[in-house]
């Protein structure tokens, strides 16, 4: 695909072409029943041009056979969009990069698994669910072959296989349903075993109650890696160059200042072999490099795509597309909270319900700690706090062991907070 794409791009001027060919198979389970099994394919093309500091963007579905014709059509359309777009005076052009492949992103074995294989694994688990529990799950296999080429000589192609498993388990009692315990797993090369995840969740789910006990007052709380991953997802928005540039992040004027506890070191490495979101290039052709976002509490770097990186003078390298039909925007790859030396203690929290209502502009959040457990009892509480305070003066420790949750590598975090 890359050879043809490079040939097509040579006939263009000040342009970038991105192609994504995705094949995905998914099986869904709800309340102990398979409710969906699907296989899909998407071949997408997105094109950007620059005309007198004006950016035009166009996209379409396509096929390998129609690639040249679709690019020609999008090129004309993008130029018309550019003519109507405002000037971006800080734009410095498309990059000229030489990128190298990251090992461990593709497995022929994973790519060749079929829907029947996924159904077999999940049906086996459904048969193990006790009568008083409800299982929801999703398991998918994906293959994404994507390529990018521009008129500055950048050309890169990458094949990525993915297998992911998500599972949630609730308890049923008297016609009511408890909150769920949950977990996720993803890999490029190894199919996760649903039975292992299910057994761990069943042990936790046995402690669930329909009406958990409410706890209040100042308490020591242990945020399990699953809860910490949710916290980092929220925190990552504050490091995005677009929110920084617009003044919509509490970190906008905090570069090189100590904002977090000295126990917090946060990094992002797209070149990690086999990493869940590793890439040799980002999705606008900038060569990947590791970043230290926070070093012993001091904010050091932000996540920038080209558009906002040019504006702030930070350059790009984290321009990724939410979907094949969208222009790049700032995003993390393999976000890592570095482990500490503490041991878990306090109320164990698996999830932060309501985090989607938190303000990334201020860091304020009010979330329900759910599910949570104290001495084997299912409890629940509300925590209203600023995330910067939570990871600074309220932080007691970071545990010595971590794990991957999606594209975040996270240990546990111990805090002292007021609950209500």
TrEMBL record:
Domain Metalloprotease TldD/E N-terminal span(s) in chain numbering: 15-78
GO annotation terms (biological process)? proteolysis
Q: Which SUPFAM superfamilies match?
A: Putative modulator of DNA gyrase, PmbA/TldD
A GO term for molecular function: metallopeptidase activity
Pfam families per the record? Answer: PmbA_TldD_1st, PmbA_TldD_3rd
What is the top-level taxon of the source organism?
Answer: Archaea
Its recorded name reads: TldD/PmbA family protein
**Higher taxonomy:** Archaea, Thermoproteota, Thermoprotei, Desulfurococcales, Desulfurococcaceae
């Amino acid at each position: 695909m890359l050879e043809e794409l490079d040939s097509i791009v040579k006939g263009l001027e000040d342009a970038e072409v991105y192609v994504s060919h995705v094949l995905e198979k998914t099986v869904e389970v709800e309340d102990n029943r398979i409710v969906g099994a699907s296989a899909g394919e998407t071949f997408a093309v997105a094109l950007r041009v620059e005309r007198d500091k004006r950016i035009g963007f166009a996209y379409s579905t396509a096929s390998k056979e129609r690639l040249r014709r679709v690019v020609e059509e999008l090129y004309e359309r993008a130029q018309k969009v550019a003519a109507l777009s405002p000037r971006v005076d800080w734009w410095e052009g498309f990059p000229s990069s030489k990128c190298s492949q990251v090992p461990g992103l593709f497995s022929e074995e994973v790519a060749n698994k079929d829907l029947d294989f996924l159904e077999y694994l999940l049906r086996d688990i459904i048969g193990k669910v006790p009568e008083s529990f409800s299982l929801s799950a999703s398991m998918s296999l994906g293959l994404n072959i994507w390529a990018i080429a521009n008129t500055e000589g950048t050309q890169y192609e990458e094949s990525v296989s993915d297998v992911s498993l998500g599972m949630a388990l609730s308890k049923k009692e008297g016609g009511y349903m408890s909150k769920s315990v949950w977990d996720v797993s993803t890999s490029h090369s190894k199919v996760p075993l649903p039975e292992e995840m299910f057994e761990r969740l069943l042990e936790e789910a046995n402690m669930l109650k329909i009406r958990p006990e409410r706890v209040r007052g100042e308490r020591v709380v242990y945020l399990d890696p699953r809860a910490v991953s949710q916290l980092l997802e929220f925190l990552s928005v504050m490091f995005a160059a677009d929110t920084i540039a617009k003044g919509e992040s509490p970190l906008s004027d905090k570069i090189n200042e100590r904002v977090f506890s000295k126990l917090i070191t946060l990094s992002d490495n797209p070149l990690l072999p086999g990493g869940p979101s590793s890439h040799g290039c980002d999705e606008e052709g900038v060569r990947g490099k590791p970043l230290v976002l926070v070093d012993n509490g001091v904010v050091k770097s932000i996540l920038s795509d080209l558009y906002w990186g040019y504006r702030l003078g930070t350059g790009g390298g984290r321009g990724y597309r939410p979907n094949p039909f969208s222009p790049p925007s700032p995003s993390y790859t393999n976000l890592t909270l570095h482990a500490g030396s503490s041991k878990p203690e306090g109320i164990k929290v698996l999830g932060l319900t309501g985090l989607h209502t938190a303000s990334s502009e201020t860091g304020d959040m009010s979330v329900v700690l759910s599910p949570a457990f104290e001495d084997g009892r299912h409890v629940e509480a509300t925590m209203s706090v600023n995330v910067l305070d939570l990871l600074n003066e309220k932080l007691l420790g970071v545990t010595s062991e971590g794990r991957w949750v999606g594209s975040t590598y996270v240990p546990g975090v111990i805090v002292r907070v007021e609950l209500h």
